[in-house]
Amino acid sequence: MFNGTMADVNEELFQTADDAVMLSISLMSVLVFWLGLMKIAEKAGLLELLARLFRPLIKRLFPDIPDDHPAMGYILSNISANLFGLGNAATPMGIKAMEEMKKLQPDSDQASRSMITFLAINTSSVTLIPTTVIAIRMKYESIAPTEIVATTIVATLISTFGAILVDRFFYSLRERRIK
Amino acid sequence: MQWLTTVSTWMIPLIILLVLIVGTIKQVPTYETFVEGGKEGIKMAVSLIPFLLGMMVAIAIFRASGAMEAVVGLFSPLLQLVGVPSDIVPLALVRPISGTAALGMTTEIIGTHGPDSFLGRLASTMQGSTDTTLYIITVYFGAVGIKRMGDALKVGLIADFIGIIASIIVVSIVFG
């Protein structure tokens, strides 16, 4: 109205609606593949093994999730997938982890404490190899495309650690409000 | 650093192999289990559509209408005050909101200033060290039908801010 961009808005609106449907459909392929594979991993006891290995750490981050709950295994596979830059595997495992956490409170549409912690870790992106960025740097003929790996890891560590602290802070605020 | 890329490409096939071998040893009916698990994926993808569509359309309108530029202009002086270089301000503000827009900006910064310049390295670090908070929240909460997300958005955005400041400090120290 004021910027004279209404025509752009109209065009963009429906183009994006189209993109969103396409994106969801293209997510279907990775979802089906990884959830299928992870189901095998779950039944074979691999997720349980992973959860048992990292229990001391994960138990501290997610105190509300009971021991041996399948959510633990999926949370860990999501974090490992993120760490190794397997972006398309991380999303299905993350969604599955959310679903398992939802099972702990089936009748509520409110985010639980564990869910918020999990989201905080994910949005601060725990990555070791920023593959997309390296690809762009190669395209523009960087003399050292991977030299930003170290700075990225340090920045990621700081932001993830910060996210966990901020999450704890808001949790204690919520607790105080209830009391 | 070449080994990093090699590790990435070998990782997925190795995981698949490992899962299938262990599954076979433990006598899990692998194919039937795969199909059973995969079915859930279809339901999830479909239930994601309204959440993703709503969020993406809202962001698209915000962007195409010029409102995003206005907001970026509004916040720029504030971020410059805390030491964010002016060329990086739009990227810092857009990174949590739109993944495609942020990637475009990173590419542009790397293109105009060069990948080995201070700004190029900073943009690269920033792009890699934080994620698109809004997208992740939409997808993860959308897929399981959580509508009241509590403090998740606040926590996510503050974490992004920490990540951005951390990127600037780390890149300044290492490459400054």
UniProtKB/TrEMBL annotation, chain B:
Residues 46-147 form the Nucleoside transporter/FeoB GTPase Gate domain. The chain crosses the membrane at residues 7-25, 45-62, 155-175. Keywords: Membrane, Transmembrane, Transmembrane helix. InterPro entries: Gate_dom, SpmB. Pfam families: Gate (PF07670). Signal peptide: none annotated. Coiled coil: none annotated. PANTHER family: INNER MEMBRANE PROTEIN YJIG (PTHR35793:SF2). This is Spore maturation protein B.
